[in-house]
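Quick illustration, no need to memorize.
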Amino acid sequence: MSYYVIYDGNCNLCVTLVQLLESLDKGQQFRFIPMQDEPALREFNITAADCEKGVILLNPDQPEQRWQGTEAAEEIGRLLPVGNVFVAAYRALPGLKWTGDRVYEQVRDNRYALFGKRSQTYQPLYPACESQGCQL
C-alpha cells in the first residue's frame, strides 16, 4: 500500500524534503502529489484552503484517513524504518510536540521568504497521479 504525500511543489524546503523521502523510500510506501496539481486534488476533495494548512498525507484506500501539518510529518516518520522510535520520543518529551507545532506553523507560513520559491513546480520521481489519473 502506498500513502500519498501532498506537498508544495514550489517551495524549496518542501521539495528538498520530498527528494530526501524519495531517496529513502524509493516509491515503496509513498507517492507524491504537488499541491499545484489541481485535478489530482479534486479527486480527493482537497481544496486550496486545505493546502494552506501544510503538507497532507492520505491513505488512498481510505481517503477520509488523512493527516496534516505536523501530524503528517509524524506519521511519515513513523512509517519509515526505525522512525517510530524517534516519533515516539518526540511525542513523549514534555512540551516538544507543542513547540514543534509552533515551529512548523512559522516555517509553513514563511517558507518562501525563508527558503525561496521555485520557478517551476517540482514533479516527483514517484507520482501518485499520471496523465490518466491517480492510482487508487
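The longest helix spans residues 96-115.
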